[in-house]
Specification:
alpha/beta; TIM Barrel; eight-stranded parallel β-barrel; two-stranded antiparallel ribbon; 23% strand; globular
Amino acid sequence: MKIKVCGITAVEQLQALQELGVDYAGMIFYEKSKRFVGYMLEDQLPLVNALDISRVGVFVNAEMDVVQKTIQDYSLTAVQLHGDETDEFCLDLMDKVQVIKVFRVADQKDIDGLVAPFQEVCHYFLFDTDTATYGGSGQQFDWGVLESAGINKPFFLSGGIGLEDVEKLKAFHHPYLYAVDVNSRFETSPGIKDMDKVADFIKQLNA
């Protein structure tokens, strides 16, 4: 299972994630987020872009030109579209970068119907808890709704996952589960991760 750590705001933390062998580092380009990377890394782009870790830019209803410029500036491996982006918007990005389309899950029963319009216009799905803040809430949804769905595309599992959920993750079986996405449960403050906790999570998950 791949591991993504989201909400990174400092180049030192990107370097630490790379040293730990984390597969994806997420940087949030949504201004209303407590983990908005803003312009904090712009003067360190040469250092950011010299790293080998795959970088994911997280966007919420951003304009296409903003997304494309950020892809270039940060040498993004993937974009995570967390808002109400259309299938056409996703399709326009597929030949430029890996596209992760987010679905916010509350009490939906028809997951297949939820993802159907995006089946052919993204590389991955991501399922997160439905909150007004578009993620980073520390809350989980019922993973059981995914087990009964006919999902046939690799997906990231997100939403309030912490160190205490390792055994629950190991017990969750789905043929298309590709990666786990963690964020707020590993923070000392918004945008700053406790790397010892991340390392412990990786060790336990791989045990």
